[in-house]
């Protein structure tokens, strides 16, 4: 079991002894819980200790723990379940499987139609300068480069190129990836212990090159949606660079802002 850093106390916060005066106590508890998540003390899908147990562990009030958990739940890192407790969020859960996939069908077509996945390539290589920069690596460090096509109803719709750091994903093969029938991020969780918790995306309209057009079954004159994503695990550590090309002739990119 992971060992957490020394715990602050409510008295420390009041006196300023042992804790930074500028950091609210619940934020310190939030960081301690994040540390345990990062160290794998509680796995995705597992229940974490109760608020009372965490309050005793960190020597703070239950209210302080509750406020920290509220923020982690709002950030989709924890999930509260009435009468059952608080669980580590997982991409294996149905309601979060498509949290990072915003392409939905036009009209009244079903939105949960499963994709047919074809792995075109999976190989280990040295990181180029731009890939290394995106993944906080050094140029030349080992990365895995993947290419796959996602089809809906037999129609190739998404072409994705992914780069993953070699260390955390050691042992990744095209065979293991092809055997994955669920969400890729759930596969990363269960097989490699890497949980994606945040993603930044850049979107623009592009034209495909001939190779990309062939894989998507379109002409090089077909406009596509280009989505570049950097996905991070805990503490904003980048773990994936993904560049996707999306056909939008029967689908659209949907995002709900609040």
Oligomer: single chain
Element-by-element helix/strand order: HHHHEEEEHEEHHEHEEE
Q: Give the number of domains.
A: 2
Distance between the termini: 38 Å
What CATH calls the topology of the largest domain is Chorismate lyase
Describe the structure.
- Strands 4-5-6-9-8-7 form a six-stranded antiparallel β-sheet.
- The protein has 258 residues and is an alpha+beta fold.
- The protein has helices at 10-15, 25-38, 51-58, 62-74, 129-134, 174-179, 184-192, 210-216, and strands at residues 78-81, 85-88, 103-105, 116-126, 142-152, 155-165, 198-206, 224-233, 237-246, 251-253.
- The protein is elongated and about 65 Å long.
- 27% of the residues lie in helices and 29% in strands.
- The chain has two domains: 10-88, Winged helix-like DNA-binding domain superfamily/Winged helix DNA-binding domain (Arc Repressor Mutant, subunit A, Orthogonal Bundle); 98-253, Chorismate lyase-like (Chorismate lyase, 3-Layer(aba) Sandwich), CATH 3.40.1410.
- Strand 5 and strand 6 form a beta hairpin.
């Amino acid at each position: 079991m992971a060992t957490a850093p020394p715990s602050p106390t409510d008295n420390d916060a009041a006196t300023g002894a042992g804790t930074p005066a500028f950091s609210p106590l619940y934020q310190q508890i939030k960081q301690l819980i994040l540390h345990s998540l990062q160290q794998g003390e509680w796995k995705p899908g597992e229940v974490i200790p109760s608020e009372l147990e965490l309050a005793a562990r960190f020597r703070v009030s239950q209210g302080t723990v509750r406020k920290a958990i509220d923020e982690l739940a709002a950030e989709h890192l924890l999930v509260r379940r009435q009468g059952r407790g608080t669980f580590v969020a997982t991409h294996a859960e149905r309601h979060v499987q498509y949290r990072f996939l915003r392409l939905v069908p036009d009209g009244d077509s079903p939105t949960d139609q499963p994709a047919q996945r074809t792995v075109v390539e999976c190989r280990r290589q040295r990181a180029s300068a731009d890939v290394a920069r995106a993944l906080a690596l050094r140029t030349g460090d080992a990365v895995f480069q993947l290419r796959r096509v996602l089809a809906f109803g037999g129609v190739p719709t998404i072409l994705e190129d992914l780069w993953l750091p070699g260390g955390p994903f050691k042992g990744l093969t095209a065979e293991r990836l092809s055997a994955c029938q669920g969400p890729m991020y759930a596969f990363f969780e269960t097989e490699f212990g890497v949980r994606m918790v945040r993603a930044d995306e850049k979107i623009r309209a592009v034209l495909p090159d001939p190779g990309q057009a062939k894989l998507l079954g379109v002409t090089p004159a077909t406009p596509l949606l280009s989505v570049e994503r950097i996905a991070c695990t805990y503490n904003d550590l980048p773990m994936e660079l993904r560049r996707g090309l999306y056909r939008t002739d029967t689908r659209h990119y949907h995002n709900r802002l609040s």
